Amino acid sequence: MINHENRLLFSSANCSVTEALTIVGEKWTLLILREAFFGLRRFEEFHRALGCARNLLSARLQLLVDHELFTRTEYREEGQRVRAEYGLTQKGREVLPVVIGLLNWGDHWLKAPNERPLHVRHRGCGGNIQVDLVCSRGHSGLSLRDMVAKPGPGALMSLPE
Amino acid sequence: MINHENRLLFSSANCSVTEALTIVGEKWTLLILREAFFGLRRFEEFHRALGCARNLLSARLQLLVDHELFTRTEYREEGQRVRAEYGLTQKGREVLPVVIGLLNWGDHWLKAPNERPLHVRHRGCGGNIQVDLVCSRGHSGLSLRDMVAKPGPGALMSLPE
């Protein structure tokens, strides 16, 4: 993208990637979102699917509620205490391309075709789902060499050395 | 996607997302890749751009070389010792949609339009770069409700409870 001379004039302290990673930049948080994309909603379901420590799962679910990727609602089954259910918000649903990007990359680079544990297909036509890099004027199939990065209105200059 | 009854019949132990996250599921690793997408190649450049601890940066660069996302080559400047330079491989370059996905999400959900520190544009036409979810038969602009997940050839059954 931009050359590294320009890059080093700007601070990465307020980068949107950095800030996104403070919320979804932890393995278990992304795995919980993966399970929510599959339709799971309850603590016991997430725990069964992920097999992680209960206190870790609890803390990550709380983080996702605090940052409004999940809403928490209560339910009570016959003879049981009140429990919490977690539903994706639009903010949470829009993490999907990141998870599909990781799935595509893992399928391509870490698995042989006959080792792939999951196919994600288009409900309408059965085609395989992929992430694509596109531009707002309709060009698709873009890669690194097609891109140029420019400082936006919120860019901060780096501190001089 | 698939309903949660089906989901819990299958293990997530060998999921491509899980395996991708063992390599790129750590904040600093993704930030180093972001800098490599900007064109940075040298330890001192990464250190200056990221401001992280040198031993952490060293360990993450080694991880990226070990997993073949970077190649390491040597260079020597006049009067200096031999130093290492890091270049993206195709495997590394293909993490780009994940990073652009994080950038788009952070720009949309964590920043006001006038706070965005970076614009990534199509070199050809100037359009804004975005990730899109598409299918192999040419449908684009897909979202969660358009997708269905099915066990692939490598799917593992969950252990019975």
What topology emerges from the helices and strands here?
The structure is a homodimer of 161-residue chains.
Chain A: H1 4-7, H2 16-24, H3 27-37, H4 43-50, H5 54-66, E1 70-76, E2 82-88, H6 90-93, H7 96-110, E3 118-122, E4 129-135, E5 147-151
Antiparallel strand pairs in A: 1-2
Oligomeric form of this entry?
Answer: homodimer
Q: What integer is the average pLDDT of chain A?
A: 91
Q: Count interface residues per chain for the largest interface.
A: A-B, 101 and 100 residues
Helix fraction bin of chain A: 25-40%
Spatial strand sequence of the major β-sheet of chain A = 1-2
Q: Outline the low-pLDDT stretches of chain A.
A: none
How many distinct helices of chain A?
Answer: 7
From the N-terminal CA to the C-terminal CA of chain A, the straight-line distance is 24 Å
Question: How would you sum up this structure in a few lines?
Answer:
Two copies of one chain form a homodimer. Chain A has helices at 4-7, 16-24, 27-37, 43-50, 54-66, 90-93, 96-110; strands at residues 70-76, 82-88, 118-122, 129-135, 147-151. By secondary structure, chain A is of the alpha+beta class.
Features:
homodimer, 161 residues, alpha+beta, two-stranded antiparallel ribbon, 7 helices, 40% helix, 19% strand, globular
Protein architecture, described:
Two copies of one chain form a homodimer. Chain A is an alpha+beta fold and 161 residues long. Helix content of chain A is 40%, strand content 19%. The first copy, chain A, contains seven helices and five strands, in the order αααααββααβββ. In chain A, strands 1-2 form a two-stranded antiparallel ribbon. Chain A is globular and about 65 Å long. The two termini of chain A are 24 Å apart.
